[in-house]
Amino acid sequence: MGVVPIVNENDTISVSEIKFGDNDTLSAIAAGMVNADYLFLMTDVDCLYTDNPMTNPNAKPVEVVEDVNALRDKVTLPLHTRFLAKDNPMLDRKWWILHGLHSVGTIFIDEGAVRAIAKVGQKSSLFAAGIVKIEGYFVAHQAVDLKIERTVKHDDINDVEVVMIGKGLVNYSSAEISRIKGCQSSDIEQILGYADSECVIHRDNLVITTKSDN
């Protein structure tokens, strides 16, 4: 049609509810939503380096990246290079949940729930029994983060580490989840007087960002 669409976040009408961070992030989300073959980011650096080449003469270029997670331990300053797509890309709906929606609250879950929803090769919904606590105010069908608090010992001192597990769309509001957390699904109707769903987040509306091998 002879038209080039321009998507720009740096706009005077942008508000926090519809901001994604910057135009690089927004372009990545847009490319994923339209299943683009390539996304080109223009920058003043020729490629990705293992460190800042302007301050570290020993920084080495990284021309192709196959696994972003494996790269994180090697690169201290992510810039721009060629990132290869995975053979099993994320479904459009889950991509939208993870990158297109702002989280309005947080649900903290226990280790049993983490094993159930995040174990490699397993797809389970999140049930009320695995919920420890919640933060924030939200209503049904909004997006929330899923996290777990783990005790980590540093120099004989116990510290609490918060780990991001995933993100999902809830079937119940924060007020309802506060009442049913830790309970069995069969008890929801007795507690609330109704049961819209047996799970708090259905597996189809759940995106896992941290996989578990246990």
Automatic annotation (TrEMBL):
InterPro entries from the UniProt entry: AceGlu_kinase-like_sf, Asp/Glu/Uridylate_kinase, Glu_5kinase, PUA, PUA-like_sf, PUA_sf
Positions of the PUA domain: 105-201
Superkingdom assignment: Eukaryota
Gene Ontology process terms (BP): alpha-amino acid biosynthetic process
Gene Ontology cellular-component annotations: cytosol
Residues passing through the membrane, by range: none
SUPFAM superfamilies linked: Carbamate kinase-like, PUA domain-like
Pfam families: AA_kinase, PUA
An annotated Gene Ontology molecular function: RNA binding
PROSITE patterns (UniProt xref): PUA
Keywords: ATP-binding, Cytoplasm, Kinase, Nucleotide-binding, Transferase
Protein name, per record: 12716_t:CDS:1
Species name: Racocetra fulgida
